[in-house]
Write a structure and sequence with these properties.
- This protein starts with 8 loop residues before the first helix and ends in a 6-residue tail after the last strand.
- The strands form 6 sheets. Strands 11, 12, 13, 17 and 18 form a 5-stranded antiparallel sheet that branches. A 3-stranded mixed sheet has the order 1-3-2. It has a 3-stranded mixed sheet with strand order 4-5-6, with no helix packed on it.
- By secondary structure, the protein is of the alpha+beta class.
- Helix 5 packs antiparallel against helix 6, helix 5 crosses helix 17 and helix 15 runs antiparallel to helix 16.
- It has 2 domains: 184 residues, no CATH class; 176 residues, Immunoglobulin-like (Sandwich).
- The structure holds heme C (5 copies).
- The site of one heme C (HEC) has 27 residues, from helix 4, helix 6, helix 9, helix 10 and helix 13.
């Protein structure tokens, strides 16, 4: 930009416009003055990471493990550890680079492997030849080197696309020193001679997580994933129950935090980052087993179980009959978000699927009403009531890929401590006294076809059969988050 400063007036405008055009060539969306990007401030754009470089490199997790075995073990089976190697991610990344060019991969990797972006080590999709640090995804030395955030300087003026500052080491009068930032006031022996310690209030705030849990379109700045803002605008933020309070604890502590708005005890914090992605934990367990590491496979299966348990505790269903002229005419199904600190579902709402399945039978066992049954090829019927979103590119076209989606044609998720009602019409039930209804709230990571397409797109060096033992993509497992049965009178009792 320095080169254009001395030129005044119209010429400067034309030159600046030409430069802007050149940098945007290849992207579909023109720059917007609302989302002005300062590329000097954000040198890794479209990722908004900043790196305070010193003579010291990033430290891979196996080094931290030497002194922090407990945290290492918990983190090693987490989705954060898998964030870069995740085959679903690698498939989508590969598609992204083919579709819009290499620049977009910086945006993705700024959250999925931040160290790999700032050091310039990651050159494209795939795992081949990468260092432990790049492969480790969201590892110890990412979070504990975060020295600040730039949430209010971003183009959207919200946390966005990795808007944090990494400072793994600092220059001192005794030479360069590692500094690790954490929740406590450091003791004398903190760091065991390997690193200095700094007390960081940021690590006791959701802002630490926000930069990566607000995903914006790489160019249009459309909020594709908005977990942080959903949380911030909901009741948990007001009562200071943070991401950490539900996701850095075991299942029992998370339930207590969610139900009673109580922060866990200091001793209860763990590095599980346990969420909902049981599929990824399951795949990783298969890979660890195949590699002969049963102990690690067991840790992944523990995460798998925690994800399933979390999903099963997130929602509740209520069924209420509605009568017209004394006849049962309608069922009201209420789905309540009882324990998610943000919307349900959250994050990749245009990919995740959460839907209602309903079966109603009369007392003779004849099915009179169904909705939401998974078809033979794993597809959902058109009548399924889904809670998620549909992404859309420009011109009202349905789209899934994050570089195409610039709006939602439908966004239908359930706010924290909120509910949504769904109504089902009941056909005439001649001579029957009872209607037996069973309603399930079901969840899976993606539509079968979408999952197959992503896994098929993985880069060549990731052999799904060799690493994961996958010959073909099996039917995606479905978790029943909630189940409710009711036996309803077909005629309204006289008052
Ligand atoms: C701002 C940080 C951020 C950026 C930028 C980002 N992601 Fe992600 N990504 C996430 C988070 C957080 C999740 C987890 C969401 C969830 O589990 O619901 C995720 C999940 C995913 C998943 C689902 C993985 C699975 O196992 O189901 C895919 C695929 C993915 N991202 C691909 C991409 C691609 C491709 C890009 C770049 C075009 C990208 N991401 C950019 C943060 C980011
Ligand atoms: C996604 C961010 C993140 C990652 C990755 C992460 N940590 Fe932490 N870590 C935190 C937060 C937040 C806290 C504070 C939790 C609390 O409130 O006690 C913490 C706390 C700690 C503490 C203080 C004691 C404790 O357990 O609370 C140590 C030590 C620590 N982390 C080491 C590690 C090591 C070693 C790794 C890698 C194996 C790691 N962390 C990975 C975010 C992270
Ligand atoms: C040579 C041993 C050693 C190594 C290697 C080491 N640490 Fe530590 N670290 C310590 C000791 C000792 C403490 C203080 C006691 C404790 O909290 O466990 C500590 C404390 C911490 C804390 C808590 C700081 C606070 O006061 O809140 C964090 C966070 C941390 N280390 C992160 C890391 C990370 C990340 C790595 C790897 C990049 C790492 N450590 C490598 C020895 C080590
Ligand atoms: C009150 C507890 C609570 C708080 C606070 C909370 N979460 Fe969650 N989170 C849950 C539950 C329950 C689920 C599982 C249901 C779901 O997927 O929404 C979940 C799921 C998730 C998922 C996986 C979504 C998916 O379906 O793939 C991510 C990512 C996530 N949370 C991140 C966060 C972040 C980031 C914050 C802070 C801004 C946060 N959570 C705050 C309870 C909480
Ligand atoms: C450097 C970016 C980054 C930071 C910082 C970060 N996350 Fe994440 N997180 C991710 C990515 C990327 C994924 C998804 C990885 C995937 O699915 O491949 C993820 C996944 C998760 C999941 C699992 C979601 C699921 O579907 O199971 C939870 C829970 C979560 N993060 C919580 C947190 C919390 C709590 C913090 C703050 C203490 C935090 N994250 C900080 C990048 C980050």
């Amino acid at each position: 930009m320095e080169g254009i400063v001395p030129i005044k007036g119209k010429a400067a405008f034309i030159l600046a416009a030409a430069l802007a055009f050149a940098t945007l060539a290849g992207s579909a969306i023109a720059a917007s003055p609302v989302f002005d990007v300062d590329r000097e401030f954000y040198p890794y754009y479209p990722s908004l990471i900043k790196w305070n470089k010193s003579a010291l490199d990033f430290t891979p997790p196996s080094v931290c493990q030497g002194c922090h075995e407990k945290q290492y073990k918990e983190w090693s089976a987490s989705v954060h550890q898998l964030a870069f190697q995740d085959p679903v991610y690698q498939g989508e990344l590969n598609k992204a680079v083919k579709a819009v060019g290499h620049e977009i991969s910086r945006q993705c990797e700024g959250c999925h492997s931040p160290a790999g972006v700032v050091t310039g080590e990651i050159k494209g999709p795939g795992n081949a030849g990468l260092s432990e640090m790049a492969l480790a995804g969201v590892s110890c030395d990412i979070c504990h080197s975060v020295s600040g955030v730039t949430h209010w300087q971003t183009p959207s003026h919200e946390p966005e696309n990795g808007s944090f500052i990494l400072t793994p080491g600092v220059e001192t009068k005794d030479g360069p020193r590692f500094v690790k930032r954490g929740p406590f006031k450091p003791s004398e022996e903190c760091g065991g001679g390997f690193h200095d310690c700094a007390e960081s209030s940021l690590h006791l705030q959701a802002d630490l997580c926000a930069s990566c849990h607000q995903v914006y379109h790489y160019d249009a700045h459309f909020p594709l994933e908005a977990t942080y803002l959903e949380w911030k605008h909901g009741p948990y933020a007001q009562k200071n129950v943070l991401c950490q309070d539900c996701h850095m604890v075991d299942t029992a502590s998370f339930k207590k935090a969610a139900d009673q708005f109580i922060k866990p005890d200091r001793k209860e914090y763990r590095h599980y980052f346990n969420g909902a992605n049981y599929l990824l934990s399951y795949l990783a367990a298969g890979a660890a087993k195949k590699a002969g590491n049963q102990e690690q496979a067991d840790l992944f299966m523990k995460q798998y179980q925690m994800a399933v348990d979390r999903l099963k505790s997130a929602a509740e269903i209520e069924i209420a009959p509605s009568y017209q002229k004394g006849e049962l005419k309608e069922l009201q199904v209420r789905v309540k978000n009882v324990r998610a600190g943000h919307n349900l579902p959250t994050s990749l709402t245009n990919v995740r699927q959460m839907w209602l399945e309903i079966v109603a039978k009369d007392e003779a066992g004849k099915t009179v009403l169904t909705s939401g049954q998974v078809g033979p090829e794993g597809s959902l019927p058109a009548d399924a009531r889904l809670f998620n979103s549909d992404g859309m590119g420009d011109n009202f076209h349905f789209a899934i890929d994050p570089w195409v989606v610039t709006s939602f044609s439908r966004h239908d998720t359930i706010p924290p401590r909120g509910y949504k009602d769904v109504y089902y019409g009941v056909p005439a039930l001649k001579g029957m006294k009872k209607l037996n209804v069973e309603v399930k709230l079901r969840y899976r990571q993606a539509d079968q076809k979408v999952a197959e397409a992503l896994l098929k797109a993985v880069p060549k060096d990731i052999d799904l059969e060799k690493i994961y033992g996958l010959k073909a993509v099996p039917p995606l497992p479905v978790v029943d988050m909630a189940l409710k049965k009711a036996s309803l009178s077909t005629r309204q009792a006289a008052h």
